[in-house]
Amino acid sequence: MDPIASIATPQRLILWSRLGAHDRDELDRLLWDERKLIEWKAFIYPIEDLPLLRALMRRPWGNLKRDQWARRFMQEQSSLRRYVLRELERRGPLASRELEHPATRYHERTVWWGTRAQLTWMLELLHRRGRITVVGRDRGQRLWDLAERWWPETEIVPLREADVVLAEKRRRALGVWRENAAWVAHADVSDGDVADRVTVLSPFDRLIHDRARAEALWGFFYRLEMYVPKAKREYGYYVLPILRGDRLVGRLDPVFEKKTKRLVVKAVYPEPGMRLPQAALERTLRSLADFVGAAEVVLPSASPARTPAQRR
């Protein structure tokens, strides 16, 4: 899950890539009303995985610097920890803006967290340790409450068993992963034909999230350039890969103009030697426009004469 929404938030764009048109409110209902899904560390899991996740939440602090910092922070900020838990128990669910304590303020403004970094860090660490959880959104801000009040009771799973089961789930979902310098396919991977369907992918889609894996398996060099200075970008701010069947055939640079309700595609880049299915791509973009609420799709007048991939 991520708040970035040049087109739609990643969680919604990923679902559209796989399902096509569907009820946009269904995800929120499954998360916040029916509670069949849970959010943890910016990922969405089925509620059935809660026993496994709880094992990870109970994992002892490691020896890495970030783990040792987190352990010290929780000890040194025990007053803030008690305040957060007490306020959530008394008044929750609450957004972070509704919490104020002398220790919430950091001694200087930080790039990512502003002046309330201490509170942000405390909420994140309590969340990672399974003490509090996200129970909704209010104007884009997370609503926090005590996990014990929101989650059902579950069995206790040993950490080693949870690691094994989650690793198997991850491998099955990926289909192919790297192991001992070799690429390994899961036993459930089929050699059958893949439908010649065209869709576009979120930069956070797990199919291409591991950039090295995407390049090794498909020869598809992809980087998210939103943090790259504009003058140094090869393709654009929030470029989406184009998937056709089982091939990554190109990428496009789109933006959803909410005020004008236009889905504007600034450029389309075919991969070297690939011919884009123009009609199918336009149908896909119209479906995406309908999904995000755009009334019009604006396509580029012409494709780039020479793509960045070809310049490399």
Strand order of the largest sheet: 8-9-10-11-12
* Total of DSSP H or I helical runs spanning 4+ residues: 11
Largest sheet: 5 strands, mixed
How many E-type strands?
12
Rg for CA atoms: 22 Å
Helix content, binned percent:
25-40%
Shape: globular
**How widely separated are the two ends?**
33 Å
What would the average pLDDT be, to the nearest integer? 90
Which class of secondary structure composition applies to the elements?
alpha+beta
Strand fraction equals: 15-25%
- The low-pLDDT segments are 305-311
SSE ordering: HHEEHHHEHEEHHEEEHEEEHEH
Characteristic terms for this protein:
3-stranded antiparallel beta sheet; 312 residues; 5-stranded mixed beta sheet; 20% strand; alpha+beta
What this model shows, in words?
- The chain is of the alpha+beta class.
- Helix content is 36%, strand content 20%.
- It contains 11 helices and 12 strands.
- It has helices spanning 10-19, 26-33, 50-57, 65-76, 78-91, 117-128, 147-150, 159-174, 211-218, 278-292, 308-311, and strands at residues 37-40, 43-46, 94-95, 132-138, 141-146, 176-179, 182-185, 198-200, 240-244, 247-257, 262-270, 296-298.
- A 5-stranded mixed β-sheet has the order 8-9-10-11-12, with helices on one face. It has a 3-stranded antiparallel β-sheet with strand order 3-5-4.
- Helix 10 (278-292) links the parallel strand 11 and strand 12 (296-298).
- It is globular.
